[in-house]
Amino acid sequence: MSLDLVLGVDVGGTAIKAGAVDRRGRMVAKREVATPPGGPRAVVARVAEVAADLQREAGRARAVGVGWPTPLDPERGVVLFDNKLGSAGVNVAGLVSRATGRPACIENDANAAALAEYLYGAAKGAGSVVLLTLGTGVGGGIVLGGEVWHGRDGAAGEVGHVKVHPGGRRCLFCGRRGCLEAYAGAQAILKRYRGAGNKADGMKDVVDAARRGERLAVTIVSEMAEMIGMAVADLANVLNPEIVVIGGGVARAGEILFGPIRAAVEREALPNVSKGLRIVPAKLGNDAGLLGAAGCAWRRFGTSASSRTLTTASRRSRIASSS
Ligand SMILES: [Zn+2]
Predict the structure, then answer these.
(1) Which of 122, 159, 163, 265 could bridge across to 283 with cysteines, CB 3.0–4.6 Å?
(2) What is the distance in A from the centroid of ligand 1 to the CA of 158?
(3) Are 5-111+286-322 and 125-283 the same fold in CATH?
(4) Who's near 162: CB < 8 A, 6+ residues apart?
(5) Distance, CA 173 to ligand 1 centroid (Å)?
(6) Which CATH architecture has domain 125-283?
(7) At the fourth CATH level, which superfamily is domain 5-111+286-322?
(8) How far is the centre of ligand 1, averaged over its atoms, from the C-alpha of 190 (Å)?
(9) Cα separation, 2 vs 208, whole angstroms
(10) Where do the structural domains in the chain lie, given as residue ranges?
(11) pTM: predicted TM-score of the whole model, two decimal places
């Protein structure tokens, strides 16, 4: 008797991570391959190879969930906007389903990470969650009442572009001034730090320098925490979440970051909003994207027998034509 499994796939600009995941979010097999050049069809072909390989090891999967690094419409499985892989307008869920022979769904990668922390990680059991991911830029996802909030065009959760300093530093991504990302994204921070003649391979070096008391690094890290705190306070005032989860490599820095963030939120958010609000590091690390993609597949295809043979898109058209 083989395990009841789905495949979760996290498609990034440089790597595709995939795993066979059970209903409780446990990964029983994992693969990582390079993202091929050649657009969405080449990427989907590679995903299908990895899916076949994983199923040879772990057994037949019920469905495939794919985290894709663009805004998208998860209901139709279609990408809405893409300046990374050239997949705008493409029905990626349909392509994956045809290539793997399994039902498939897609979810934005940052939203998938938020869903994963909600289902299996740091926010397990919470009703509403805001996730901030501190990477090259600052991404995020919002889970409200147990559902990912996508917004009208799949663009919700862009917490990196919350304004924390009108007229402030220019955002390297959107070009506007004063975005959170200009103060808390690794690309912006490293540019500033190296621009002053310092050496750093990554954010860890800047955080370590701050721990040693090096002046610019201390300024950068305390500004980063302050600006994250301001953004979290605003998000908390608007959404009143139970928990705010902060992920990405630098979130492992611990109290040097979380202490000042919590202090800023306490100072800036309404007292009834900040009281009892948990602000915690993410738990799932680099696996969050693929686990959330798997979670999306479990939610969509985990119960109905009919869904085993139909993609969401074809199921929708069936429903439409039978009514
Ligand atoms: Zn911006």
Answers:
(1) 122
(2) 9
(3) yes
(4) 179, 180, 231, 234, 235
(5) 6
(6) 2-Layer Sandwich (3.30)
(7) ATPase, nucleotide binding domain (3.30.420.40)
(8) 17
(9) 47
(10) 5-111+286-322, 125-283
(11) 0.91
pLDDT per residue as tens, the chain (323 positions)? 578 999 999 999 999 999 999 999 999 999 999 999 999 999 999 999 999 999 999 999 999 999 999 999 999 999 999 988 999 999 999 999 999 999 999 999 999 999 999 999 999 999 999 999 999 999 999 999 999 999 998 999 999 999 999 999 999 999 999 999 999 999 999 999 999 999 999 999 999 999 999 999 999 999 999 999 999 999 999 999 999 999 998 998 999 999 999 999 999 999 999 999 999 999 999 999 999 999 999 999 998 554 444 444 444 444 444 43
Ligand 1 centroid to 251 CA: how many Å?
20
Per-residue tokens: 146: 């147990």
In the reported structure, the alpha carbon of residue 52 is separated from the centroid of ligand 1 by a whole-number distance in angstroms of 39
How far is ligand 1, taken at its centre, from the CA of residue 174, in Å?
4
* Dihedral, CA of residue 273, residue 277, residue 283 and residue 287, to nearest 10: -10
Ligand 1 centre distance from Cα of residue 181 (Å):
6
What CA–CA distance (Å, rounded) separates 319 from 317? 5
Ligand 1 centre from 176 Cα, in Å?
5
SS3 at position 304: coil
